[in-house]
Design a protein that fits this description.
With about 110 residues, this protein is mainly β. The chain contains no helices and eleven strands. Strands 2, 4, 5, 6, 9, 10 and 11 form a seven-stranded mixed beta sheet that branches. β9 and β10 form a beta hairpin. It is globular and about 40 Å long.
Length: about 110
């Protein structure tokens, strides 16, 4: 089970940190990632961190967002800086196992608005 937290309302230019923790399983077994979705659009990759700590980001968030993981805490984080209104979405935590099966959290809303 994946549980996200840290979403909310923030002004443009502000920052948020999302957290995702796993219960009942160790995150070290999974590639972990964050995706986001707005109504009427496909879910898109925000950031991904592999079991080996390699990272990649969606083009729209490079240089603003940072993904990290702490396997000792069974957690993955997304630090979001310089937020823009277009970052408004539901953010989902993702865990992918070694055979490609995906698991998803329930999502957390991020709203960037003045």
């Amino acid at each position: 089970q994946l549980v996200e937290s840290g979403g909310g309302l923030v002004q443009p230019g502000g920052s948020l940190r999302l957290s995702c923790t796993t219960s009942g399983t160790a995150t070290r077994q999974y590639h972990m990632g964050w995706y986001r979705q707005v109504p009427g659009k496909q879910r898109e990759l925000v950031a991904k961190i592999t079991r080996g700590f390699s990272v990649n980001y969606g083009d729209s968030v490079k240089d603003r967002f940072t993904i990290s993981r702490d396997n000792a805490k069974n957690a993955v984080y997304l630090r979001m800086n310089n937020l823009e209104p277009d970052d408004t979405a539901v953010y989902y935590c993702n865990a992918q196992n070694v055979i490609g099966i995906n698991y998803w959290g329930q999502g957390t809303q991020v709203t960037v608005s003045s």
